[in-house]
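Morning run. Coffee first, then this:
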Amino acid sequence: MRNSYPAGGFGAPNIDGMWQAMEEFRSKFEKRSGTRAGRGEVRAAVLALLAEQPMHGYQIIREIEERSGGSWKPSAGSVYPTLQLLADEGSISAEESNGRKIYSLTEAGREEVAGDDAPAPWDSKETASGSGFAALPKAGVELAQAAAQVGRTGTSKQVQEAVKVLEEARRRLYSILAQD
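And here it is:
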């Protein structure tokens, strides 16, 4: 119970406790890198990338993460089995180069990509607009980081103003849930 009361008494804010809570909040979201893709999205992403140029598996993972703005980073455990499946189906082929397998589309793979009118998974409305479920915790973490920065470097007046902004944001978030 030693640290259960504010350092300066009951009226003073417990700054250390606030920062600790902010760090715990942030770390909960940072451990989740990316989001889970829907069924078939890894396959569609791999085919779309290989339609542009041959790549190895790690390049594919990095490119998906980059094109999705960091909101989706597929694991090697989802990309490599997809590559193997596509190779088994005859949609892609693999060549060994400098100790890495470089994957490229076969004629059957090019036909599959040409017949698919769907946008690449990273171009979907949800990803492009940032309205996916992954965008909410990311925005929350960014807000917490900004609040922490104001708390560390702001004047007393700036901190009070930031508290008002955060209280208003909280009220507005709850009002969203109250809407029908």
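Confidence is low (pLDDT under 50) at residues 1-12, 125-130. Good start to the day.
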